[in-house]
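pinned: reference chain
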Amino acid sequence: QVQLVESGGGSVQAGGSLRLSCAASGYIRSTYCMGWFRRAPGKEREGVATINSAGSTYYADSVKGRFTISKDNAKNTLYLQMNSLKPEDTAMYYCAADPTDWNCGLPTKTFGYWGQGTQVTVSS
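pinned: its structure tokens
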């Protein structure tokens, strides 16, 4: 089993920054594919960014150039640095992990483990 706990959410004004963290525990390995997703009120969940075991990253078009995904394998922690935040970034953000890594950047990628989420609210 893998446990994922997100933190770092909050309320900021447009143009501001936040850094989300996801602490992983249990049977987590550096070979896992990991990612960030979000769900805004009344909308479907969408992928934000993923990172594979080699450190290759993939981003949704809506966040490219503003968000950066990274991980610290020694700390079993995943990060999402969010800059130039916009009101449309307001959502619950979820961390996810999966042992299958070869398809990490594909939009069809499914994840077996999920955190409980952390709320990000951006005001105009």
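why pinned: The chain is about 0% helix and 50% strand. Residues 15 and 85 are 5 Å apart (CA to CA).
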